[in-house]
Design goal:
Elements: E1 5-14, E2 22-31, E3 34-40, E4 50-55, E5 59-63, E6 65-66, H1 86-97, H2 102-118, E7 121-128, H3 138-149, E8 152-159, H4 178-192, E9 201-207, H5 215-228, E10 231-236, H6 240-250, H7 254-260, E11 268-272, H8 278-287, E12 290-293, H9 295-300, H10 308-314, E13 318-320, H11 334-344, H12 356-370, E14 388-392, H13 404-410, E15 416-421, E16 424-428, E17 431-432, H14 437-457
Parallel strand pairs: 1-4, 1-5, 6-7, 7-8, 8-9, 9-10, 10-11, 11-12, 12-13
Antiparallel strand pairs: 1-2, 2-3, 5-14, 14-15, 15-16, 16-17
Helix pairs in contact: 2-3, 2-14, 4-5, 11-12, 12-13
């Protein structure tokens, strides 16, 4: 069967390729699930099997956004503990999270994915680490929601085995055993990981954090990931309190601890990395360890300002993350483009910290690097997968901003006219095509109420 083509013309294009190539008015030709050509002016004439032509006048085309850190289940506990720092926030919410079950997790994943997808995310990621006994197939519920939504997806199968009785933060009934966590993680990789070029589902090994995981789970988790050929993910250097915790418990700071357990390398990415000194950044650069920068969550939990300009200058791969929607209630990644730029300008580098194009790169190619998929997604180039977004910039919200990339990053949230994932439309005129947004809203509201009732009775 002949390959079918979609042609997009007359739009501004930010390719985010190695040279940051841009076109004031250009075209994109999608053939099947890949990009066939990108260039200035009209598409080539006499293309065969064109099933759709899109007039992109007034729009900017970019690579689809790539989310590198999230906790979908938190969608049903939004708006709680709003004035807490990280440790107090965790202590307040862990008893509720420990009551989640499969229907709750599926509904929460649908809500999280819907908000991201309708805001330009084409590759999503979820770090799920709470697995109460008897709660059902939580990993399967999250993966099913991603397939229903139509986005490309990485599940970081998390775990915790250090509870309150061991000096950790989670309640005793909210953690797994070392053996159970490793076995369940390996089973998830075996069942769901797809290493192919156009894979829609990949799995990473992801013990939660140094203060909720034993050293042995960190070490054996790294060994498992490398034996299976998958990536590694965890939280790192998020708060001052975490640094103090590591020094008291392990006699070293977080980065040195991670290195001692095999957790630095080009197959690793860490969430947050707010409190990094020069030697920490140098270690990440030397080992090509990636960072998921979560500016809104860092501000919401008063964690601090990550040294993103210094990381980029050193050569550290950096992407953007929403983080859980109990610490970033909007649940949208496109707002993180703006927040990354603005918050980093409050730091030492001030107005030279980041510009609009660097922010867009963080949310696209940077995220693809962090997830190990930069050869497949993250930029608009011939041969790459057709994950792209057409943003409308000719409305009142952006009409007087001449530069389209500046309009997208610094302006109000731009409407998504079209989003393609693997060459397949996922969003049209701001609406999801494969799930009913109103039904998702109802189910997430109902599951949030059910969780609150259960947690209140516990």
């Amino acid at each position: 069967m002949a390959v079918q083509r979609i042609v997009i013309e007359n739009c501004a294009i930010a390719t985010v390729d190695a040279g940051d190539t841009e076109y004031a008015s250009g075209h994109i030709v999608v053939a099947g699930n890949t990009i066939e050509s990108v260039g200035s002016g009209k598409a080539p004439e006499n293309l065969e099997n064109v099933v759709r032509r899109v007039d992109g006048t007034g729009h900017l085309a970019t690579p689809g956004l790539v989310n590198t850190h999230h906790h979908f289940y938190q969608w049903i506990t939004r708006g709680l503990a709003t004035d807490h720092n990280l440790f107090d926030w965790l202590v307040a919410l862990y008893p509720t999270w420990a009551r989640i079950d499969e229907p709750m997790v599926h509904a929460a994943a649908q809500g999280s994915l819907a908000m991201m997808a309708r805001g330009g995310v084409t590759t999503a990621m979820d770090h799920h680490y709470v697995f109460p006994k008897g709660s059902g197939d939580l990993s399967g519920a999250v993966i099913r929601a991603a397939r229903e939504t139509g986005v490309r997806f990485t599940l970081a199968r998390g775990s915790m085995d250090r509870s309150e009785k061991d000096g950790g933060l989670p309640p005793d009934f909210a953690v797994e055993t070392l053996e159970g966590a490793l076995a369940a993680t390996e089973a998830t990789v075996d069942e769901h990981h797809d290493a192919s070029f156009d894979s829609m589902t990949q799995i990473a090994v992801a013990p939660c954090s140094p203060f909720s995981v034993s050293t042995e789970l960190m070490r054996q988790g790294a060994e498992l990931a490398r034996r299976k050929g998958v990536r590694l993910h965890t939280h790192g250097s998020e708060t001052v309190e975490e640094e103090q915790f590591c020094k008291e418990l392990f006699g070293m700071g977080p980065t040195d601890y991670f290195e001692s357990t095999g957790w630095l390398g080009e197959d690793v990415w860490m969430a947050h990395c707010v409190h990094m000194n020069d030697s920490d950044i140098a270690a990440f650069a030397r080992t090509r360890t990636g960072v998921a920068h979560c500016p809104s969550s860092n501000a919401r939990l008063a964690a601090g300002i990550a040294r993103v300009p210094d990381m980029l200058a050193a050569g550290v791969p950096v992407g953007l993350g929403v983080d859980g929607t109990a610490s970033n209630e909007s649940g949208e990644l496109h707002t993180e483009l703006r927040n990354a730029l603005l918050i980093n300008r409050l730091g030492a580098h001030r107005e030279a910290a980041l510009n609009a194009r660097q922010a867009l790169r963080l949310g696209t190619y940077g995220g693809a690097q962090v997830l190990g998929r930069a050869s497949q997604i993250g930029s608009l180039e011939a041969g790459k997968l057709a994950d792209l977004v057409l943003w409308r910039l000719d409305t009142l919200a952006h009409a007087s901003i001449a530069d389209p990339v500046t309009a997208l990053v610094l302006g109000a949230a731009a409407p998504v006219t079209l989003s393609l994932v693997n060459g397949r439309p996922v969003v049209e005129d701001g609406r999801l095509l494969h799930v009913d947004e109103d039904a998702v809203a109802r189910s997430t509201r109902d599951e949030a109420r059910r969780l609150a009732r259960i947690a209140g009775q516990a």
